[in-house]
Each structure stands twice: as C-alpha cells, then as structure tokens.
Amino acid sequence: MPSEEKLSSYLNKSKLISNSNYAKKIRIAILGGFTLNGLEETMRVKCDEKKIQCTTYVSGYNQYNQEIIDEKSQLYKFSPDITFLIIDCRNVFGELFLNPYSLSAEERKQFVQTKSDEIINLAKTLVKKSNSKLIISNFSIPSYSPIGINETREEFGLHDMVRSLNQNIKIGLRLEPEIFIYDLNSFVSKFGEHNVFNYKQFFYGDIRISLDYIPYLAQELMGYVTAVLGLIKKCIVLDLDNTLWGGIIGEDGFEGIKLSDDPIGRAYAEFQNNLLALNQRGILLAINSKNNFDEAIQVIKEHPNMILKEDNFACVRINWNDKVANMKEISDELNIGLDSMVFVDDDPVNIEYVRSNLPEVMSIQMPADNCHNNASNLKSMTAIFDMLKLTDEDKARNTMYLEQRKRAEFKIQVGNLENFLKQMNISVNIKNADDFTIPRISQLTLKTNQFNLTTRRYQEEDIRKFSQDSKKIVECAQIKDKFGDNGITAAYIVNKDNEQQWTIDTFLLSCRVIGRGVEDGILSHIIEKARKDGISQVRGEYIKTEKNQPAENLFAGFGFKKEGDFWIFDTNNQFKKPKHLVIS
C-alpha cells in the first residue's frame, strides 16, 4: 500500500497553491457529521498536483442536515460539482450506539428503517436541489459490542443494525444516477479501526477519522474527482520478465521461469489474476518487452500457468527496440493518449527512461525482490481506472480492440481504401438518448478528445436534461461491421435555435471508428432530419484543442462554409452520403 505524506505537509502545501488557470476545474463541497480537519486542504493539493483547479466549500460542524434542507444555504449558493457527505454511526444512532439493547429487536428494526429513509430522502433532496453529484459514505461496522461474545447470538444486534443500514441505503440509492456510495466501512477495515479512530482526538475535537489518515481518505475520494473529470487511465503496458512472471525467459528458459508453482510463482499468478479482473472491466493491457519474440510469445501461448492469454493483450511489442519508442507505437496503434497509459516494469532504469522521456505516462516500478506485494500494490492504485459507471462498451472494450486488429490486418490485405470500406459491411444504428444510452453519451463527452468538434463535457444529469428538452436533439450511434460490434461510439447534440436554424453543439466519434466515413454518414443523417423539418440552415463550430486536430476538416470536407466562428450548411444544397454505410 503506497505511503502518504503527513497531513502537516498537505496543510503547508495548500498555502502555496497559486491561482493557476488549469483547463480542468472542479468545485467540491464537504459536508461532515464530525470534524474533518485537513480534508479540504489535502484535496486541493492533490487536485493541484493533477493540474485541476479546485474550489472548495466546507459546511459548518455537523450542519449537513440544515445545509441540505435549506434551499438558500451556502451549499447551494456555492453550486458544487461534487458533494462529499461523510457521516458515521454516532451521527445516526446517537446514544443507541453505546446502548442499542435498551430497545427491543423489533424496535431496533423500526429505528434502522426510519433512519435509512431519512438518509435516503436527504441524499435525494440534495441532488434534486443542485447540479452536484453526491458521494455519501456508508457506515463502519464496529468491532465493539456492549454484549461481547453474545453479539452473534442476538436477534438484530448492533452489528446487524449497521449492516442493515448500509444495505437499505445501497438499495434505496443504487438506481440514483447522481448518487454514489463511498465504502467507508472498507476504508476502516483496510487501515484498522484502532488506527482510524483515535479516542484522544475524538474527545478533544470530535475527530472520528484520525488526522494521520485524512490524507489516505482524501486519496480515495480523489477517485471520484478524476472519474467526474474523465481523467482516468485506460491502458496498462507491461514488461514480461520479472513482471508477469519470475525470472528471465532468455536465461531461465520455458521450464525455468516462476509462475504459480512456488511462493514466488504464486505471487506472479496473483498479479496476473488482478490484471485479468481489470481487463474484464474494460482496462486495456499491452506488452512492452525487450525479448526474443518467439521465446516470450511461447510462454503467453503455451505455459500452463499463464493466467493472461494472447487475446487479453490489445497490443504487443516484444522486440529489442527502446521502450520509449515502443510506448509511442502502442499509443498510436491503440489510438489513445500517452496520458491514458500506465507503464509497469521491474527495472528502475527502464522506469526512469520512460519517466524522463514520456512524463505524461504514469510509470510504476514493481521490483522483482518485492514481487509478493505486486498484487497488493496494483489493488491500491485501481482508483486511477475508476469510472462512475461501467457501460456495456467498457466491459467489451478488449474484444473490440481485438476486432480492431483484425480490421487493420484486413485493410492491409485489401489495399484500396474504397474497396476496404465496401467490404466492411458497416452499419450505423441511430439511437435516442434514454436510460440505457445516457450514461454512455455522457462518458463519450467526458473522454473523447481526438474526434470531438467542441470538447464540451457533460455529466449524466446534463444529458438527461437535454434529452427532455424539445429544443434539443440528443442521439448516439451504434457502429457494427463484418468483424463485430463497436458499440455506441458516436454521439451528437443539436440545438433547435428557431424554425430556420439548428446548431450542432456536440459532435464526436470514438477513435475506434475514425476513418470509415461514419462521421459523414451521421452528418448526412442530421442534415436530412433538418431538411424534413423545414430547417434551411445547419451550423456548427470547431473549437480547436491540443488533441482534436483529426476533426478539424470535417465541416469543410462535407461542404459547410465558414462564416465567422461558425460553419454553415444550406440544407437546399446537395450533400454526400457515404454509399458503403447503412444508416438506420
């Protein structure tokens, strides 16, 4: 588990934060049922380190109820993007926390139900009155029981009360798109109840999370910040020798490497199992190894104890080229930014070489002499891959990239681009924004950088409001071809300005489907729709960023004319509709 700086260090650093005008901005509110000294300062420092401009609001001591209920409170005037509500059992149970058995079992059940309803209603009230996402903590199950070893024999005892409270809140809020439950119970279990809760600090200042562990709490909460801003890592690039297995294949041979058959081998197998779990939720895996290709690939294909198989890797670079060159090639092949990649290697020289030449890549050393901690270290950093919601496209991402490799191979075989597109059998299925597609549309606006005309970022609640507005069109497209289903990989938002004009607010494609004419097909769909509605003019913007150059010539290539800041298309004009696409 990575160590953290002391809280005093974060407090000192917070005083030195300049008013940097970072591109990424976030407004964070912290509501607590007890003293959370230092949490706000630590989160501002952690945001600043990630080049996020963070503005914070901290409610008064134990004032969360009043702040949420009062529509004119400072909380709503602050207008946060994210609100963290951190409370514990003492807030909810009051005196019953120490003396729960003053009530009968039935009374305890009713008490928990009442408190659950209150918390659920409070959470729903906050998101209804604001545009904020709410992250509410669950409750730590205490090791203490006033009846000692008889706790497990008691009907609906103290521990059952807390478990039931947690379960009720989970069920009550699970389908609320803007509410997320932070697992404070797991946090306390991970670090130890007697470490996290310090009686001296509690008695002196109602501090229920020790000051020593505030930085660790802040680090976990940062996962929500990076997820909201779309600053997640998408790909883990792995060395092989002494990283995926113990030993060096070129020296120890196929039979000599360590994998699963002894304590060291089991450590590497456990590491691979954790990588597989990340891969199955949509995190790409790639290989960057200095090795003889045939020897290394044989292990991946044939070793009986390999957990990760060839199809788990979206990209493979096993050669004697330098690792920086390989990283650039992997980035190009997968069409993702270097800042979306994590490089893992056992060799400190390779790690330093990549860090110094590609600072945007997160480079992590996992030394061979400490391999038993590799799986634990990987688990501790999974927050960098966290998304607020996993979509079907996320879970199928690895399959989609393997299909993409087949497309690339097929393109080389066919040679001619026009013939390639004709033989691809591409279909574009236009879908309305609904409960199933809204999370994915929002995710695309947050994550897509390259083919994104305006790079306007919209949260789920924004997309949901747009979809209910009769003056807007919010749609997406599912792209399929002969090699498989790319999933929902395109989205657009159109503003119906008036009876004569529409404006394209957002138009984007995932990098996976760029270069197949899909963009022209979707534009033609929008133009046809406008023409049928009697609209004479459709206009759009291209707002240049560091990464969206691939979208720069879309409007000009389609026949739009530049007028000031906008590109204009007269719907009476003829327009191209790609013949190799089927749009439905």
Automatic annotation (TrEMBL):
InterPro entries: Acyl_CoA_acyltransferase (IPR016181), BF1531-like_N (IPR049369), FkbH_domain (IPR010037), HAD-like_sf (IPR036412), HAD_sf (IPR023214), HAD_SF_ppase_IIIC (IPR010033), SGNH_hydro_sf (IPR036514). NCBIfam families: FkbH, HAD-SF-IIIC. Residues 27-222 form the BF1531-like N-terminal domain. This is HAD-IIIC family phosphatase. Transmembrane segments: none annotated. The lineage of its organism: Archaea, Nitrososphaerota, Marine Group I.
